Amino acid sequence: MSDIVNTPDNTVNANTALVQVAVQPRLARTRQTSARTIDAAEVARTREQGYRRRKTTNAAMLGFAVVCAAIALIPLFAIAIYVVVQGVSSLNLTFFTHAQYPPDPFGIPLGIGNTIIGSLLLVIIASVIGLPIGLFSGIYLAEYGRGRVANAVRFLADVIAGLPSIIAGLVGYVLVVSITGFSAIAGGFALGLLMFPVVTRSAEEVLRLVPNSLREAGLALGIPRWRVIVSIVLPTAASGIITSMLLGIARVTGETAPLLFTSFGSPYWSFDPLKPIGALPQMIYVYSTSAPSIQQRHQAFAGALVLVAIVVLLNLIARVLFRQRVQGRT
Q: Are 96 and 116 contacting, i.e. CB atoms less than 8 angstroms apart?
């Protein structure tokens, strides 16, 4: 092997190689830093664009929701204002304390007191029929409901809840009116058919909210299951159960179609459940469709105002009780 001769060119090349070796890591670090800076800027820009897009989409959907809510509320308030304007002039003490018959010297009915009493009697009969069925059905579905039988009960309750109310009137006519004639019992039976599905499904959901730990604690003490349900589950869900009952009552308070086939209506004071009886929704229907005078139509609007007030009051009571239950759980 021959010795390597150190020449100036070799020295320069060696020094250049050493400089490159020293500089390359620094250049690599500089490139990496620049790449990270570019990547960070790109990520920030992408995030900003995504945030603006989400903000724009949220504003658009919020505006669409507000418009839809306004479309739903404007007709509601328009109807409420129209009913108040048309019916408030007929509201007085006589309107609530006198019956439709006998009329005044001009042939105009004095009041709707008999229809209010009739509606109250119909709701009581419907509650006696519908509330126990709905409550016990809800207890069964929540506590024991498993398998095909429970699914069949749920399906039946949903189907009945979705049926037109006139079907309940036809069923009441076939099963009750054909035997006893037109009566408050027949009307209450038809309304009870509409009431119990609402109570069933609402009571089931309310009872499912009761923590299982309470049931397990009662069973661990050796208490029978029925006693656990009666003494622990039902008191815990009492406000929710009352809410479901009020919702069922509000559901049937304003029904008219079933009463046309069952209670038939009466312009007199009546407290006999075995005879035809007047009802507020039926009076509104008759006065608004076949009333010969303007005064009777105004009375129909006044009756509608009273009916709306009753339904709103029941719903407000139900919401207050439900809110108290939720606050108690939280």
A: yes
Supply the DSSP string of 27-79, one letter for each residue: HHHHHHHHHHHHHHHHHHHHHHHHHHHHHHHHHHHHHHHHHHHHHHHHHHHHH
Tokens describing residue 90:
């007929």
Contacts of 6 (CB under 8 A, 6+ apart): none
pLDDT in tens, 100-115: 877 766 666 778 888 9
Residues across the chain:
330
| Sequence-distant (≥ 6) Cβ neighbours of residue 15 within 8 angstroms | none
Residue 197 exposed, middle or buried by CB count within 10 Å (0-12, 13-18, 19+)? buried
The answer to whether 262 and 190 are in contact (CB under 8 A) is yes
Enter the DSSP assignment of 233.
I
- pLDDT digits 0-9 by tens, 125-159: 999 999 999 999 999 998 888 888 888 888 888 88
Q: For the domain made up of 95-329, give the CATH fold.
A: MetI-like fold (1.10.3720)
Tell me the CB-side half-sphere exposure of residue 199, using CA atoms within 13 A: 28
Report the interhelical angle of 294-329 vs 280-290 (nearest 10°).
140
